[in-house]
Amino acid sequence: MSGSRPNILFLMTDQMQGRVLEPGHPCLTPNLDRLAARGVRFTRAYTPNAVCSPARASLMTGLLPHNHGVLDVIHNVDDDQSVLRVDRPHWAQRLSEAGYRTGYFGKWHVERSNRLERFGWQAYELKQKGKKVKAKAKPDEAAAWSEFPLAKTVDDPPGYASRLHYAVTEDPPESRGVGITTDLALGFLNEVLQGDEPWCCMVSVTEPHDPFVAGREAFELYRVDELPLAPNVHDDLAGRPNIYRKVQAPWRRLTDRERKEAAACYYASITEIDAQYGRLIDAVERAGQSDRTLIVFTSDHGELLGAHGLYCKNFSAYEEVYNIPLVIAGPGVAAGVVTSARAGLHDLCPTLLELVGLEPIGAPDSKSFAGLLADPGRFEGEYQTGFAEFHGGRYRLTQRVYWDGPW
What we know:
Blueprint lengths: L6 E8 L15 H8 L1 E8 L5 H10 L3 H4 L22 H7 L3 E6 L16 E3 L24 E5 L8 E7 L7 H16 L6 E10 L3 E4 H4 L22 H7 L7 H31 L6 E7 L19 H4 E2 L1 E4 L7 E8 L3 H8 L14 H5 L1 H4 L5 E6 L8 E6 L3
Parallel strand pairs: 1-7, 1-9, 2-12, 3-4, 3-7, 6-8
Antiparallel strand pairs: 2-10, 2-11, 5-6, 9-11, 13-14
Helix pairs in contact: 5-8
């Protein structure tokens, strides 16, 4: 390895609650627990936006959505909108310019050219071959869902398209997106681990995003009837904005048993991710590069999972939506620490650049927490405020979230 710059293994999920990594939580994540035991886990990490494309663009640029311009998911708007511009510097460009080997695998979802070399990624693969489960289907396609041993569709209120909510599949994770993406990344890792240049490998799976689909083996690790429901699962949202009640409508007829099945499928999907990402962590360890590799695990935003009678995200500033998992381990990072410091997903941009000794890109919306990672006890009090923004989706609305200490 040239110089003293550390490698980076960046592991990302889609729509994962931060609280699933809490001790005693029913979700089984042995590999992520192992990672947290030798690094820093944040209990108060938050996304700057509860939608995939804006959050991911903020991660890459260190900017809030109103500054990078990606205000919505790219498939909701015209082709010239919600596109990450090449004149917004990306931290991977800094790495590439400094001699890093860079690779990106899985979900991109911030612009439409899919030419990632323009953003600093030298090797990349975005396509996931294999079985794809659609979240929505035409009536004649819905019959295909009967192939699952367990499946629940949501068809209410009248006029809504039938939508798969959760399912158990006989297909192993190796034949689905989570395993295929991991295999692609592992191929890149096996190559760069043999070289001398520093490297950055980013792995971004689409799971556990709805519909919550998991393999039978992982699902059977969970006792459905024993899973707890959110204490506010039957919230009628009285006194809250009417848009919240409108969004809640498709989920009102779910039984408590079905809500527990949904949770089991969601947790089982995360368990599958944990196993696949464990393969990547193991590869780094076998190569003897753990002590010079930064490993980051996080997600773009959270998931309501029945809290307030809601699922998915959007339209509500609840903790389950904005709180995300964040674990960082490696050189310059304290070991076995849980911190209540408030960190934003977009703050990873300046933090990573500082950790590898490169110049920041000058994003005014984000702040490096590299010093905190080295000495959490000393700097925790300096990271207690934060900001997030939401610009609506198919419905247009404005929402702002501000954090200050316990508030």
